[in-house]
Design brief:
Elements (H helix, E strand, L loop, with lengths): L4 E9 L4 H15 L1 E6 L3 E3 L9 E10 L3 H15 L15 E7 L4 E2 L4 E2 L8 H10 L12 H7 L6 E3 L11 H4 L2 E6 L5 H12 L2 E3 L8 H7 L1 H26 L7 E3 L4 H10 L2 H15 L7 E6 L2 H11 L9 H17 L5 E5 L9 H16 L2
Parallel strand pairs: 9-11, 9-12, 10-11, 12-13
Antiparallel strand pairs: 1-4, 1-5, 2-4, 3-4, 3-8, 6-7
Helix pairs in contact: 1-2, 3-4, 7-8, 8-9, 8-10, 9-10, 9-12
């Protein structure tokens, strides 16, 4: 489980559709930087330091895994995406969107590109008022005063007016929609990679399959007929014990949990590897265990074509997997397809990852996160 840290951002706009630009920025920050836990009311403010149209200003609180240097880079990218063109000038100017890091927890940062706390925040009412709405008792690292006190002492004469009838939409995050997500897919589909990435971004407790510890696995790939039954039984017992133990430790109403497998995986592989008589015995044991296992709120199946699966298996270099055949992978996929069609009580999202690389391409990963959120909101 990763450690998420809190940062406070100030956003402003005084050109074009100001409210829409602020909402675009909020949405992109949630998509690219982290979970937004609070958004202040929208304030209308006279332009600061020059004559121009009034600004709309807000403050937001964001939980992020990223460091401040990465944040400033991403915020500049977001400004650029929305349409801001920066010019080298010491004077104030109108802008489509302006995003500043005001605070990053209680850290003090001096670098070439970033100073935190923002050096001008105590002088600007349009920063302090929205900030006080979402974190009034935060203590400024230098001033040793709360944001509420700094607002009361602020000498800025510019009027800051709350817009009572205007409200921005806070983007929903995955942990607000689900308590427990199970991720599945064929061998080499990327289950563990996606589990780790989602866990890092959303502070999830993760349950990872302990396949590497199974002594029967290398033997099975050498002699399937002999070792299929002990392999599948050992996997079933281990998966049942791990899921039972790990899920029992978590409060499913307060914790966000992701596993890179679901116990039904055992049945799918057993259908492919076991004889008819062995499978009948195996199924009896499975049904007893399956009824006792907590079901995920969302079951994600990562589909990847066989060619890509073979490439992934080869590239990750596990010696005992190198003899896996195309035919074997197709049988596994068919087993998953039959399961998804027949299991009506699971909330199933199928994501085709055959033509994307969510590990190396951030935009592909962000698309998957969007799909996960939108899937539940469309129900």
């Amino acid at each position: 489980m990763s450690l998420l840290r809190e940062t406070y951002l100030s956003l402003g706009s005084n050109q074009g559709d100001r409210l829409d630009f602020l909402q675009q920025a909020v949405d992109l920050i949630a998509e690219r930087i982290g979970m937004i836990s609070h958004i202040s009311p929208v304030y209308k403010t006279e332009s600061y330091g020059f004559k121009a149209d009034d600004f709309l200003n807000i403050a937001i609180r964001v939980q992020t895994k990223h460091n401040p240097e990465f944040l400033i880079h991403e915020l500049l990218e977001i400004e650029n995406f929305i349409g801001r063109t920066r010019v080298k000038s010491d004077s104030f100017e109108s802008r489509i969107i302006d995003i500043d890091i005001i605070l990053f927890e209680d850290e003090i940062i001096f670098s070439e590109k970033l100073v935190v706390p923002h050096p001008e925040m105590t002088k600007r009412r349009f920063v302090l008022q929205p900030l006080a709405d979402i974190t009034p008792l935060f203590i400024h690292p230098f001033e040793k005063k709360t944001v509420k006190t700094l607002l009361q002492e602020c000498a800025d004469p510019l009027k800051v007016e709350v817009l009572e009838d205007v409200k921005l939409t806070r983007p929903v995050s995955i942990p607000e929609l689900y308590n427990y997500i199970g991720i599945e897919g064929n061998i080499g589909a990327g289950k563990t990679s996606l589990t780790n990435m989602l866990s890092d971004d959303f502070n999830a407790k993760k349950v990872l399959e302990r396949f590497a510890d199974n002594p029967f696995l290398p033997k099975f790939y050498e002699n399937e007929e002999r070792y299929a039954f002990p392999l599948e039984m050992s996997f079933l017992a281990d998966r049942y014990q791990q899921l039972s133990d790990d899920l029992a430790q978590f409060d499913l109403f307060k914790s966000f949990i992701i596993s890179d497998y679901y116990i039904f995986k055992s049945l799918i592989f057993a259908q492919v590897t076991l004889s008819h008589e062995e499978y009948a015995l195996y199924r009896r044991m499975f049904d007893i265990m399956y009824n006792e296992i907590t079901k995920p709120d969302l079951y994600i199946y990562l589909y990847q074509n066989t060619e890509r699966l073979l490439e992934n298996i080869k590239s990750r270099g596990r010696e005992y997997e190198q003899n896996i055949t195309e035919d074997y992978l197709k049988k596994i996929h068919k087993g998953y397809a039959n399961f998804i069609q027949s299991e009506k009580n699971l909330n199933v999202l199928i994501i085709d990852v055959s033509e994307i690389d969510f590990v190396k391409r951030p935009e592909d990963y962000r698309k998957i996160v969007k799909d996960i959120i939108q899937f539940q909101r469309n129900k």
